[in-house]
Design a protein that fits this description.
This protein is α+β, with helices and mostly antiparallel strands. Among the domains are: about 140 residues, no CATH class; about 90 residues, Penicillin binding protein transpeptidase fold, CATH 1.10.3810. The strands form seven sheets. It has a five-stranded mixed sheet with strand order 2-1-5-11-12. Strands 7-6-16-15-14 form a five-stranded antiparallel sheet, with helices on both faces.
């Protein structure tokens, strides 16, 4: 029949053919293990007629004549094209499912051995009924019925299964029926889940598939029975196909004029996932044969377990475990009969029968399954009326409910992709993350996470500005909380772990740590005068080649000017000029190197460009809250670094451990140095810029940070057991927050959050600093003062720094080139000690003109003699309430916007 022929023209013939197919398949139940590989030609109606005739002729000859004799032709009278075939002549009634002639037992042959000679079946008598069956089956099998899916399959069943009547399927179909080695079912894709350290579900990773596999023994009997009732009532009886079911589907489709039932068994549905679901006869044939192969290899229990874990229930829930969680927030073992019936009813059309939207339809379908369970004897009839009245009881979407920390998914994903133990390639690790059914246990503490989120919401009720909080365990490197005031959807990145911002003066502790580690004493003197100019340092010169001369040099917050300060006072008051002087002495690379060892991704932070502004927090790209919390955790851990990690353990779907974090501590700072620095940083909280962070019972150390123009504000602090960074600012960055400083809102938020998460913990104090040990570490060393005269200023400061000496600049009027050292004190070759100050006179490159000659009235006055030594010019402190920061290319820095030319940071 052509594709253009109408449905009504073949309806009668197909109904009769379906009846004949039923007779044929019931008569022949001996099924060989046939497998996929069938290739069917595109047969026209005329060709189908010839094939039908050939089938009958071949069938008759095989039954009447010896196998090796040429068969005689058997012809049927022609039938009208649009009329159903003549009714077959009935044989005497035979027992159901028994062949009309006793089957000849075939000696067993080794499976899949093509070399073994085939066993020939003795001929059986040919009856008119057999001829009619053969014609109907073959004709129906090869009709081009692309518009009616499933009809060709029924005929194919008859042809393939009527093997005693048509003993050679290869000859009949003129195609290769390969017998593969074995049929298989590949491992299912399964969703992964993320848990906190206490086993609380944090997130479900369901990129495309939400599935959780479960053993059949953990699925209650009534759940299995409900699914079998809804999908395949003869599951335990058939061998992969159900002829009566296919016949019922065929008749229903014929009567409806379209495909309303599929007639596939559970095994065929499993086969469909392997052979595809195209609406072609070839695909349906492959499905049937593959189903037969699956039945040969797997037990009924194995097939049912696979089906219950594979089948789709709607709402992105694959498998009974995901469906129970999605629709009832429970596990399969807790499902009752009505819940099981509802889930079973969803399988047939999961996308069109969502019980949350179509309650009436879902109720009817559920009740139909319950009625069927009564018919099958699974539940007693007397229970049915009560069960039918029960409400559906469907819950809200479980997937939405369990995504408690959605941004954690991306943070965990990035860590999985970095963990080489989880796969040979990044692509393999990504697939494992999304589809491998992993159980990922994180280090997160759900209560701390909630407290962090609530703290941000309490202090920052609006959307902008926002905040980020990150907390790390100093001993283990375990990330305990990463919270953001804005959701992942709004930003498309995670603020605590990916949001890079300028740290301002919160970066200064790395400068002081490097100085102490390199042997500079706490008592060393640093200049606190403001502003300070450093000739030859871009952005920090007196004339820095900018239109706004107020941003040249380095100044302290609010223009405050100090005298000489030791490290403790300089850090406590966040003095920019002192930090700039110390950075120049150490060198920017030394500061960057130490910060990199302390969990700062220094390459990303500086974009590979470490300038002198690093000492004031002026970085090209900035740092994340997690990096800062992890870096300060080194201070809290006696100078030992532990790499921060979010993943504690990864298990596969079988419960086998694929990866387990093994924190390793690496010494970065000498413990004596670290304990001294902690004592200095405690001073920031007890009497410096960070007093708002002080806790009544715990010792706290930390540092404030506010960037140029109050764009970013920080407080990073730690106790012996937790290190936490709080950042406040606008998500887009570079938006001013007038009056905002790190010592205000961020320090208060830190205090509120830490007071809650430390409540109930045993109080632990920091180790006592041993400054005598720190001094003895330096020893009674003396150094010779180098000759730095005629050097440029930056070169001179570096040379002094190499001898552990501090250079303090005095600007002098001189005709020497600007920035050149014209004198020094102490003199070259003198003996000094580490940390001592060497004063250097640096030329301004300008000599003021001599004063005008005295007037006649003063002609008798004595004339002053000029000093042979160039006069030292001490500029008066300038009033400065501006917000520029410390320079050399950084985009921000300092606390409260102390001036540090070129865009760096200041201090509050």
């Amino acid at each position: 029949m052509n594709g253009s022929a109408g449905w009504s023209g073949v309806k009668g013939r197909l109904l009769s053919a379906a009846s004949a197919v039923g007779l044929a398949t019931r008569a022949h139940r001996q099924v060989p293990p046939l497998f996929p590989g069938l290739r069917l030609p595109n047969v026209t109606d005329a060709v189908a007629e010839r094939i039908a005739t050939s089938v009958v002729e071949r069938s008759g000859r095989e039954q009447e004549q010896p196998v090796d004799q040429p068969p005689a032709a058997v012809k049927d009278p022609p039938q009208p094209v649009d009329q159903p075939p003549a009714p077959p002549v009935k044989d005497p009634p035979q027992p159901v499912h028994q062949p009309s002639a006793p089957p000849v037992k075939v000696p067993p042959q080794p499976v899949h051995q093509p070399s073994a000679p085939p066993v020939k079946v003795p001929p059986q008598p040919v009856t008119p009924e057999r001829q009619a069956v053969g014609r109907a089956a073959a004709r129906l099998a090869f009709l081009s019925l692309g518009t009616v899916l499933g009809i060709g399959t029924v005929a194919l069943v008859a042809v393939v299964l009527s093997r005693p009547a048509v003993s050679n399927a290869k000859a009949l179909l003129d195609v290769e029926l390969d017998i593969p080695e074995e049929a298989s079912l590949p491992e299912l894709d399964e969703r992964s889940t993320i848990y906190d350290g206490d086993g609380n579900l944090l997130a479900v990773i369901d990129r495309e598939v939400s599935r959780q596999t479960i053993a059949l023994r953990r699925i209650p009997e009534h759940v299995r029975q409900a699914v079998i009732t809804a999908e395949d009532r003869k599951f335990y009886e058939h061998e992969g196909y159900d002829v009566e079911g296919i016949g019922r589907a065929l008749v229903a489709n014929l009567q409806a004029g379209s495909v309303t039932e599929g007639g596939s068994t559970i095994t065929q549905q499993l086969a469909k996932s392997e052979v595809g679901n195209e609406r072609t006869l070839e695909r349906k044939a492959s499905e049937l044969l593959y189903a037969m192969a699956l039945e040969e290899r797997f037990s009924k229990e194995e097939l049912l377990e696979r089906y219950l874990n594979q089948v789709y229930f709607g709402s992105r829930a694959y498998g009974i475990a995901a469906a129970a969680e999605e629709f009832f927030h429970t596990k399969p073992r807790n499902l009752n009969v009505t819940q099981a019936a509802l889930l079973a009813s969803l399988i047939r059309s999961p996308n069109s029968a969502d019980p949350r939207d179509k309650v009436d339809l879902a109720m009817r379908r559920r009740n139909a399954v319950l009625q069927g369970m009564v018919e099958e004897g699974y539940i007693k009839a007397k229970r049915l009326p009560k069960l039918l009245k029960k409400p559906l009881g469907v819950k809200e979407s479980s997937l939405r409910r369990t995504r408690r920390v959605p941004h954690v998914i991306d943070a965990v994903r990035r860590e999985v992709l970095r963990t080489k133990q989880l796969g040979k390639s990044r692509k393999a690790r990504e697939r494992l993350f999304y589809y491998g059914g992993l159980r990922i246990t994180t280090t997160l503490d759900l209560e701390m996470q909630r407290t962090a989120s609530n703290t941000i919401r309490d202090y920052m009720p609006g959307t902008e500005p926002t905040a980020a909080i990150a907390t790390v365990d100093p001993k283990t490197g375990a990330v305990k909380a990463i919270a953001s005031g804005l959701g992942y959807k709004e930003l498309e990145y995670d603020l605590p772990t990916q949001g890079r911002r300028q740290p301002g003066s919160a970066f200064k502790p790395f400068v002081y740590a490097a100085a102490l580690q390199d042997g500079y004493p706490v008592e060393m003197k640093l200049s606190g005068r403001s502003p300070a100019y450093f000739e030859g340092v871009p952005g920090w010169e007196r004339d820095c080649n900018t239109d706004d001369k107020d941003v040249c040099g380095v100044s302290n917050y609010g223009g405050s000017s100090y005298g000489d300060l030791d490290m403790r006072e300089a850090l406590k008051n966040s003095v920019n000029t002192a930090a700039a002087q110390l950075t120049l002495t150490l060198g920017a690379k030394r500061v960057a190197k130490l910060a990199g060892k302390m969990n700062i991704d220094i390459k990303a932070a500086t974009n590979g460009q470490s300038t002198n502004s690093i000492g004031l927090g002026g970085l090209d790209q900035g740092v994340t809250a997690l990096e800062m919390a992890s870096a300060y955790a080194v201070f809290a851990n006696s100078g030992k670094r532990v790499e921060p990690h979010l993943i504690a353990k990864v298990e596969n779907r079988a419960g086998e451990v694929l990866y387990k974090a093994k924190p390793k501590a690496t010494k970065v700072l000498d413990p004596v140095v670290d304990h001294a620095l902690v004592d200095l940083m405690r001073g920031v909280v007890t009497g410096g810029t960070g007093t708002a962070a002080a806790l009544p019972s715990w010792e706290v150390a930390g540092k404030t940070g506010t960037t140029q123009n109050h764009v970013d504000a920080w407080f990073v602090g730690y106790t012996p057991v937790l290190s936490t960074a709080v950042w406040v600012g606008h998500a887009k960055g570079q938006i001013e927050m007038p009056g905002m400083t790190g010592g205000a809102l961020p320090a208060s938020m830190w205090n509120s959050y830490m007071a809650k998460v430390l409540d109930g913990r045993k109080v632990v104090n920091f180790p006592e600093p041993d400054f005598n040990a720190l001094a003895s570490r330096l020893g009674d060393r003396s150094v010779r003062v180098p000759d730095v005269v005629r050097m440029m200023e930056e070169e001179a400061l570096t040379a002094l720094g190499k001898r552990k000496l501090i250079g303090e600049v005095r600007q002098v009027s001189s005709s020497a080139p600007q920035g050149t050292v014209v004198w020094q004190s102490p003199n070259p070759g003198d003996t000094g000690h580490p940390g001592e100050t060497v004063y250097i006179g640096v030329s301004t490159g300008y000599v003021p003109p001599p004063p005008p000659p005295p007037s006649s009235s003063s002609s008798g006055s004595s004339e002053k003699k000029s000093n042979d030594k160039p006069a030292e010019e001490e500029p008066a402190p300038e009033e400065d309430t501006g917000d520029s920061g410390g320079g050399g290319g950084g985009r921000g820095g300092g606390d409260g916007g102390g001036r540090g030319g070129g865009g760096g940071g200041g201090g509050d």
